[in-house]
Amino acid sequence: MVAGSTLVLSLLCLYGTAAIAEAGTSGSFKAPAFCGKYKCPEYKVAMNYETFELRVYEPAQWITTTVSKEKNSLEKLSSFRRLLEYMKGSNSENKMIEMTIPTVEYVPINNPSVNETMSFYLPATLTNPPQPTDPKLFLTRSNKKSLYVKSFGGFAIEHEYIKQAKLLEKELLQRGIPFVNSAIQRASYNYPSVRSNRHNEVWYLTKSN
């Protein structure tokens, strides 16, 4: 998985600034510093804990693909490239869409009947996203939702995401906070060229959604 993570990050670095189309921001949302110059999903921090926070996210649109259950490095890279090609104009309108962050992976836990997915956030200014032409891609919309979020730095690879997810789970359980433990989401915010102040997250859905 280390090789696969490196390949994905390298590809993102290569094409990350290639497609800029929809300018501007939505509403009064002020993106956090770790989003840099890229659009990211709108949210508010409802509560800060010592090592994690509770966020309330606004509805958002995403372009999504499934990740093969084999989950080897080449399959993961293929999923990423499908999403990237959509953003670069391989869609029903041949429309270039600005690159966004984060890249989010939805990883089901102990449920082989549910597919793992990878998604790119679509800018809020893109009110009617073009349809994908690749049959392995599909548009999705997330409703307003609350998430427990643990942030960490460094170059995140598979074992580090697993470690941080376990730490967040432990912290929630110790505090007696209910959460949905059937899946974890992983969010990556940086390109490989960023050597310091890197930002990664793991997300658990709250029981209140």
UniProtKB/TrEMBL annotation:
Gene3D superfamilies per record: Regulatory factor, effector binding domain
Any GO MF annotation of the entry: heme binding
The UniProt record lists the keyword Signal: yes
One Pfam family from the record: SOUL
Gene Ontology CC: cytoplasm
Keywords associated with the record: Signal
Cleavable signal peptide: 1-19
Family in the record: Belongs to the HEBP family.
Protein's recorded name: Heme-binding protein 2
Source organism of this protein record: Leptobrachium leishanense
Organism placement in taxonomy: Eukaryota, Metazoa, Chordata, Craniata, Vertebrata
